[in-house]
Amino acid sequence: MHLGSIVKERRKLFNITQETLAEMSGVGLRTVKQLESGKGNPTIITLEKVADVLGMQLVLQIKSMNQ
Amino acid sequence: MHLGSIVKERRKLFNITQETLAEMSGVGLRTVKQLESGKGNPTIITLEKVADVLGMQLVLQIKSMNQ
DNA sequence: AGCAAAAGTGCACTGTATTGCACTTTTAAA
DNA sequence: TTTAAAAGTGCAATACAGTGCACTTTTGCT
After folding, report:
1. What is the widest separation between alpha-carbon atoms in chain B?
2. Which PROSITE patterns does this entry report, sorted A to Z (chains A, B) (predicted)?
3. Collapsing DSSP states into helix, strand and coil, what is residue A11?
4. Which helix (H) or strand (E) holds A60?
5. How far is the C-alpha of B24 from the C-alpha of A64, rounded, in Å?
6. With an 8 Å Cβ cutoff, are A47 and B45 in contact?
7. d(Cα B55, Cα A61) in Å, to the nearest integer?
8. What is the pTM of this model?
9. Which residue in A44, A51, A61 is closest to B57 by CB distance?
10. What is the pLDDT of residues B9-37, one digit of tens each?
11. CA B55: distance to chain centroid?
């Protein structure tokens, strides 16, 4: 499961639209759409802005841990 | 602690140079240097390439977990 | 089914990440 | 302490991420 899907699922949990997420995070709507649909290659800052609004954070962890 | 520092620390654990990490990951040396020194705003793919070589992965998790 | 809202996409422009090169600074080993 | 290897940095070129706009497709509600 890629990062975009995780963002999308989490956003739906909050019952907000891509447009609202874009506004709240300060990221362009087009960028949010691309991120969620798995297109493109966002920068860390873009991903962090979006994740932050959704109460999530980007972390680097040792590989192959369950969940 | 930012992502660059985590990469740097992890790399030192493996006793390899930035140059070796760059070669192994397929990322430019200049980019590795910027990443580790906290300059710039890498893309997910760049960070994933480097993390992969170091046996790490980028994950999105619910915020405010310990560690 | 009908329809409005939400999501996905092609295009084009702007800004910036990636990169190599050449150089300086720092580190660590003899 | 010397000094070679490793790390940090300014500059410039290229590739591509971020974005708005206009449009199509999908979703989900009545």
Report:
1. 35
2. HTH_CROC1
3. helix
4. strand A56-62
5. 20
6. no
7. 9
8. 0.92
9. A61
10. 999 999 999 999 999 999 999 999 999 99
11. 10
